[in-house]
C-alpha cells in the first residue's frame, strides 16, 4: 500500500518546525534555543560581573580629573579631586558616554564635551557639559550622523570635530565657535578625515585622512579660509598616529612608520626642514604621546610585546627624566597637568581593572587616584598570563598569551578556550578580563589569546600578512595553535573551544569550518559570516575603509574569493555546537550576518544557540545585557566544553 502524499508533506513540515526553534522575546532580548540560566550560575558569576574600571579622560582647570566609570548600568563621566577621593558622577544617561574631552585650563567656561549614541547605533551626537551650571547642551544635529574626535583650541573658543552630517558617507571636519554657537563646515575633501590639533594661536588645524591602517594623509587647514595643505609622506604611503604642534612653537611632533617597520615618534622643524626620530632605538610601536603646556616635557608610551612602557623627555636636552616603577600592564589616556608638574594616565593589568594614576615628576612618585571594585574578590588570586610563541604553517612565529587555571598540576590536562581578538588589526594585550578570570577559576579551563598574523603591534609587515587574498592565512595560524595545544602535556586537545567578536567572530566560524573535527564548540559574537554581504550591508561611511582590508567585493576575482572562503557558504562543515550573539543596531557588522549563519548551520546535527539584544550595537555595553550574555556563554561552555 502506498503512503498518501499528504502524509509525507506533514512529516516534512514536522521536521522543518523541529529544526527551527521558537523565537522568544523578553523585553529587548531575543533568543532561540537558549536553555534557562540556572540560578546557581548567575550567583557564581555575580561578583565577577560586578567588577568595574576607571579610565582617565583629562584634567580640569582646577586640578581635578575627569574619569569614565560605571556605577549603574552604563559608563558615565565622573570627577575626582584628590587621590582615592569620591568619584562624583556628572552625567546620568541610560546610554553610555564616550569621547570625554575637557575644555583647556585657559578656557573661559569650565566643562567638557562628550559623545552619546542610541542603542549602540554609533550615530553619536556631541554634548557640552557645563561644570558651572551642570547643564547638558546638544552641539550637533541630533540626526542620523556620526560625530566625534573632538579637539578644542587652547583658549577654549573653537571646537573641531569629524562628522558625517553632510552626506552620511564622508567624514568631514566641522568647526564650532564655542562662544556664539555658530557651526560651519571647515573641510569637505571626501573620505574619512579627523581633526588632530589646533595651533597655539588657533589659526590653523592639523588634520588627517584615514584610508587604511597602513595609509593616512596628514595636512594642515587654515581655519579662516578652509584651505588644506597636505604634508609630504616619505615613501608615498605610511601609517600615522598622533600629530601635534610643538607647544614651544618649534615645529610638530607626530607618529608614523615612514621608512620604518614600526610607528616611531618624530619631530619636524620647518625652519630647518629636518625630521628627528625620537624613538629610533625602540623596535616597537609608539602608541601615544603628550606634551606639557610650555613644551618643556614630552611623554610617550611604547607598546612592547603588548606591554606599555612610559618615557618622559626634557625637550631642551633630549634626556629622559627619572620615573617611578609602574604596574606592568596596558596604559593609555596620557596627559600632563595644566602646570606640567604631573602626568595622569590609566593603567590596566591582567589582575586589576583600569585605574587612574598620577606621577609627580619632581619626586618621581606614583599616586593612585582611583581604586576600582573587583566584586569583593581576592585580586591576589587572579592569574597573570605568560607569553608563548608557536610556529605556523610558513615557519612564522605567532605570539599568544597563555592563562592556566591556578592550583592545577602542569601535566594535568585541562580544557582549552582560544579567544581571538577582532579588528582584524587589533591586538590582544594582557589586560584585565573578569570573564577570563572566571573561566580559569570557576570552570577550570586554560585560555589562549593569540595575536594571529594581521594583528597590530608587531610591525607593518606582520600587519599586512592577512590582507585581501591572504585572508585564510590567519585561519591557518589557528590550525597551528591547535597543533601546539596537542603537543602540550597540560592541555586537552580533545576539549578545545573557540570564541571571538567582530573579525574574531569570523575567525571562530572559519576555524570551525576548517577544523571542525578538532574543535568542540564555538561562540561567535557580532561576527562576519560572508565578506561580500558584510561589505554590502555595513554602513556607507565604513565600506571603503573595510575594502582596503578585506578586498573590494565589486571586483569579480575578489568576489569569487569571498564566495569561496565564506563560512556561510561552507556552513555544512560545522557540526559542532555554535552560539551566535548579536546586537540588532550594529552598524559595523549588521545583524543579518548572524541571522543568515544561524539559519545555514541549523540542520547539520549540531546545537545552535542564538541571542540578540535590540538595544545594543557592536557588542554589549549595558550591564544587564552583558551580564545575561556572560551567563549564557558560561552555560554553553559548561555543557559543550566541560560536559561528556
UniProtKB/TrEMBL annotation:
Signal peptide coordinates: 1-18
A Pfam family hit: Peptidase_S9
Molecular function in Gene Ontology: serine-type endopeptidase activity
Peptidase S9 prolyl oligopeptidase catalytic domain ranges (all copies): 431-641
Superkingdom, taxonomy of origin: Bacteria
Gene Ontology biological process terms in this record: proteolysis
The protein, known as: Peptidase S9 family protein
Source organism of this protein record: Arenimonas maotaiensis
Amino acid at each position: 500500500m502506498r503512503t498518501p502524499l499528504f502524509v509525507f508533506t506533514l512529516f516534512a513540515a514536522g521536521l522543518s518546525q523541529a529544526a527551527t526553534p521558537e523565537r522568544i522575546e523578553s523585553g529587548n532580548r531575543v533568543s532561540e534555543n537558549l536553555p534557562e540560566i540556572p540560578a546557581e550560575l548567575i550567583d557564581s558569576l555575580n561578583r565577577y560581573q560586578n567588577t568595574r574600571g576607571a579610565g582617565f579622560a583629562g584634567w580640569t582647570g582646577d586640578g581635578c580629573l575627569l574619569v569614565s566609570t560605571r556605577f549603574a548600568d552604563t559608563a558615565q563621566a565622573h570627577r575626582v579631586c584628590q587621590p582615592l577621593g569620591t568619584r562624583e558622577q556628572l552625567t546620568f544617561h541610560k546610554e553610555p558616554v564616550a569621547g570625554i574631552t575637557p575644555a583647556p585650563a585657559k578656557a573661559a567656561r569650565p566643562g567638557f564635551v562628550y559623545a552619546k549614541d542610541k542603542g549602540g547605533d554609533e550615530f553619536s551626537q556631541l554634548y557640552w557639559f557645563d561644570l558651572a551650571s551642570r547643564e547638558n547642551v546638544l552641539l550637533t544635529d541630533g540626526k542620523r550622523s556620526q560625530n566625534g574626535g573632538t579637539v578644542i583650541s587652547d583658549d577654549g573658543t573653537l571646537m573641531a570635530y569629524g562628522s558625517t552630517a553632510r552626506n552620511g558617507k564622508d567624514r568631514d571636519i566641522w568647526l564650532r565657535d564655542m562662544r556664539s554657537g555658530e557651526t560651519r563646515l571647515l573641510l569637505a575633501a571626501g573620505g574619512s578625515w579627523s581633526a588632530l590639533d589646533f595651533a597655539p594661536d588657533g589659526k590653523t588645524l592639523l588634520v588627517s585622512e584615514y584610508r587604511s591602517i597602513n595609509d593616512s594623509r596628514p595636512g594642515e587647514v587654515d581655519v579662516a579660509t578652509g584651505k588644506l595643505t597636505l604634508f609630504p609622506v616619505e615613501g608615498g604611503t605610511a601609517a600615522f598616529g598622533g600629530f601635534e604642534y610643538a607647544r614651544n612653537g618649534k615645529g610638530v611632533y607626530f607618529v608614523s612608520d615612514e621608512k620604518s617597520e614600526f610607528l616611531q615618534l618624530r619631530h619636524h622643524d620647518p625652519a630647518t626642514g629636518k625630521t628627528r626620530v625620537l624613538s629610533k632605538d625602540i623596535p616597537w610601536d609608539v602608541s601615544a604621546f603628550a606634551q606639557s603646556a610650555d613644551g618643556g616635557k614630552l611623554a610617550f608610551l611604547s607598546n612592547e610585546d603588548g606591554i606599555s612602557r612610559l618615557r618622559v623627555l626634557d625637550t631642551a636636552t633630549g634626556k629622559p627624566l627619572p620615573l617611578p616603577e609602574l604596574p606592568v600592564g596596558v596604559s593609555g589616556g596620557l596627559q600632563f597637568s595644566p602646570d606640567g608638574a604631573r602626568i595622569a594616565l590609566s593603567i590596566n593589568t591582567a589582575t586589576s581593572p583600569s585605574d587612574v594614576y598620577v606621577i609627580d615628576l619632581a619626586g618621581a612618585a606614583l599616586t593612585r587616584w582611583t581604586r576600582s571594585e573587583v566584586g569583593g574578590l581576592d585580586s591576589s588570586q587572579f592569574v597573570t598570563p605568560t607569553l608563548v610563541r608557536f610556529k605556523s604553517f610558513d615557519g612564522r612565529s605567532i605570539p599568544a598569551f597563555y592563562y592556566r587555571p591556578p592550583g592545577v598540576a602542569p601535566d594535568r590536562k585541562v580544557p582549552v578556550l582560544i579567544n581571538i581578538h577582532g579588528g582584524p588589526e587589533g591586538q590582544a594585550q594582557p589586560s584585565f578580563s573578569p570573564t577570563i578570570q572566571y573561566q580559569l577559576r570557576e570552570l577550570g579551563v586554560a585560555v589562549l589569546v593569540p595575536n594571529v598574523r594581521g594583528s597590530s603591534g608587531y610591525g607593518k609587515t606582520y600587519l599586512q600578512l592577512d590582507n585581501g587574498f591572504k585572508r585564510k592565512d590567519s585561519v591557518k595560524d589557528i590550525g597551528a595553535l591547535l597543533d601546539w595545544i596537542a603537543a602540550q602535556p597540560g592541555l586537552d586537545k580533545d576539549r578545545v573551544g573557540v570564541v571571538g567578536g567582530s573579525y574574531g567572530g569570523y575567525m571562530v566560524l572559519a576555524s570551525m569550518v576548517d577544523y571542525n573535527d578538532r574543535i568542540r564548540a564555538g561562540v561567535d559574537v557580532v561576527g562576519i559570516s560572508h565578506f561580500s554581504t558584510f561589505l554590502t550591508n555595513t554602513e556607507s561611511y565604513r565600506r571603503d575603509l573595510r575594502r582596503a582590508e578585506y578586498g573590494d567585493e565589486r571586483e569579480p576575482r575578489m568576489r569569487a574569493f569571498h564566495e569561496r572562503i565564506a563560512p556561510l557558504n561552507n556552513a555544512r562543515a560545522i557540526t559542532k555546537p555554535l552560539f551566535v550573539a548579536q546586537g540588532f543596531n550594529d552598524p559595523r557588522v549588521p545583524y543579518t550576518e548572524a541571522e543568515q549563519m544561524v539559519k545555514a548551520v541549523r540542520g547539520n546535527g549540531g546545537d545552535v544557540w542564538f541571542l540578540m539584544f535590540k538595544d545594543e550595537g557592536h557588542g554589549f555595553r549595558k550591564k544587564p545585557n552583558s551580564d545575561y550574555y556572560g551567563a549564557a556563554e558560561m552555560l554553553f561552555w559548561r555543557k559543550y566544553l566541560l560536559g561528556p
